[in-house]
Amino acid sequence: MCGIVGAIADRDVVPVLIEGLKRLEYRGYDSSGIAVLEQGAQPDIRRVRRTGRVSEMASAADAEGFNSVLGIGHTRWATHGGVTEANAHPHISAGVALVHNGIIENHEEQREKLRALGYVFESQTDTEVIAHLMHHHLKGGDSLLSALQRTVKELTGAYALAVMSRAEPDHFVCARMGCPLLVGLGDGENFVASDVSAIISSTRRVIFLEEGDTADVRRDGVQVYDAHDQPIDRGVHLSDVSLASLELGPYRHFMQKEVHEQPRALGDTIEAAIDAGGFPAELFGRNAEAVLSGITGVQILACGTSYYAGMTARYWIESIAGLPCNVEIASEYRYRAAYADPKHLVVTLSQSGETLDTMEALKYAKSLGHLHTLSICNVPESAIPRASELVCYTRAGAEIGVASTKAFTTQLAALFQLTVVLGKLHGRVDATREADYLEQLRFLPGSVQHALNMEPQIAAWAERFARKSSALFLGRGLHYPIALEGALKLKEITYIHAEAYPAGELKHGPLALVDEDMPVVVIAPNDSLLEKVKSNMQEVRARGGELFVFADQDSNFVESEGVHVIRTPRHAGVLSPIVHTIPVQLLAYHTALARGTDVDKPRNLAKSVTVE
Ligand code: G6P
């Protein structure tokens, strides 16, 4: 959360900063700002900040004629201090401007110290202490770089920082600890950004900074320093993020685009298994066979939508691979004295690879004695996979809509592959079953496309949902987590209160909520629990509740008064949860359209949550 971009060039960098911030807006979108160096005999810093979207700040920068060869920018998701212009970044302390992503835990202590030195605070942010600390060290004679290196050693917490000073107009500096930051290398121009999407129009050549690194960024070169302030070569990577994946194309929203990209994203994520004609352990890394054959159980850790992917995987891992599997919300796990069996594999699931709670849960699991870790992640080179022993990258491509869609279904595809690998290595999946699972996987993108084709029918339902204030989602077994995901999607982007229950639990409480105003969405695939689900539906109907049922093509459901049915494709067997995710995504999307909410940037949320 919070996005950072910085640039130094021989051309005007203001358009680079604005474009970068627009691409980083998924990281936070309550306010934004840029600071640039005003050229002339006596260079000074000019700053523009606005609450609201980047486009509003960009118009102000344009109106005020901002133009410079050096600048930094920020898009904010408020943590310390409300959404006000005074709290927006960049923060300035007499000629030093900086932008910050992360949280400084010892800001109160630093604030007291700085107040005693005469500094006056204009904002409620933790960031402002860094600006004043920088100024304090510069005043003491430090260069911009050494002031930064000294300052970061006085901070506890997480940060990605970019800092410029009017006294040193030929460069800017940056630092990273716990929040992502990379340096982009251009031709006679260089950049810094929270992720490569921000600078992709200028360069694909990037250096990923490591924890504790600082860097000196000049027009003609970049020098990185490690946590001990020693020069270090971090290597240059060529990013393969495509520009098309960052642009809307013919779609109205990124969420719509990303929902429709799922057949392709799934096809790409399963490609290696299809090409291999099976499920080799190497899908999870070179050393995977040795690690995965030695484990005796699985501990999954994740947040949000990724957690629901983990819940689904638990059904697969226990029934197909025959291994015990525990799934826990990362923010809970990290603060309890959890039982840790060193022979249980810790699997973290994270689209972004930078969710702080998941990262901390991973570190905590290691500290408890877990020996083996696997990360399933969608962002190459992000922090969580880098801290894991085994890695599997989903190939969803950039996901920009805050509500996760294609990242979820590709996580499920990766988890299914992990299940079959574990089943093989632990003697539960023979060659015939492996071939059968591969065949099911091969059909998956087609089934998902078929589910997408139901969009017009789902859009018609959405018109009715848009007028409701609450909804219930029901599912059983493998589809209970999909009911949870459906309720989460609806909450996130329509602000309709939604809850999900395992259908069998209805009578133990939530049935009290059911009346003619409460729509009840039922995920009712043609599996062994269908008859049970039908009984649960009767419980709703008998209380006047209106049912909206997602059934399979081959299940004998009849529509009747108060029971609306949409048929998804033929039952997809064990992969059915992936197919049944599509209609609940589309229902949330179209309901949001009908309510006129901001689909891609729902209120109060951010895509990657790098704070507690
Ligand atoms: C945020 C996002 C959710 C996401 C969750 C976990 O809350 O808004 O969409 O599911 O973080 O993110 P991760 O990147 O770890 O999967």
UniProtKB/TrEMBL annotation:
The active site is at residues 2, 607. GO terms for molecular function: carbohydrate derivative binding; glutamine-fructose-6-phosphate transaminase (isomerizing) activity. It catalyses: D-fructose 6-phosphate + L-glutamine = D-glucosamine 6-phosphate + L-glutamate. One of its GO terms (cellular component) is cytosol. The keyword Transport does not apply. Pfam families: GATase_6, SIS. It comes from Stenotrophomonas chelatiphaga. Transmembrane segments: none annotated. GO terms for biological process: amino sugar biosynthetic process; carbohydrate metabolic process; fructose 6-phosphate metabolic process; protein N-linked glycosylation; UDP-N-acetylglucosamine metabolic process. Homodimer. Residues 287-428, 461-602 form the SIS domain. Keywords: Aminotransferase, Cytoplasm, Glutamine amidotransferase, Repeat, Transferase. This is Glutamine--fructose-6-phosphate aminotransferase [isomerizing]. It is found in: Cytoplasm. It comes from the Bacteria. Its EC number is 2.6.1.16. InterPro entries: GATase_2_dom (IPR017932), GFAT (IPR005855), GFAT_N (IPR047084), GlmS/AgaS_SIS (IPR035466), GlmS/FrlB_SIS (IPR035490), Ntn_hydrolases_N (IPR029055), SIS_dom (IPR001347), SIS_dom_sf (IPR046348). Residues 2-220 form the Glutamine amidotransferase type-2 domain. It is an enzyme of class 2 (transferase).
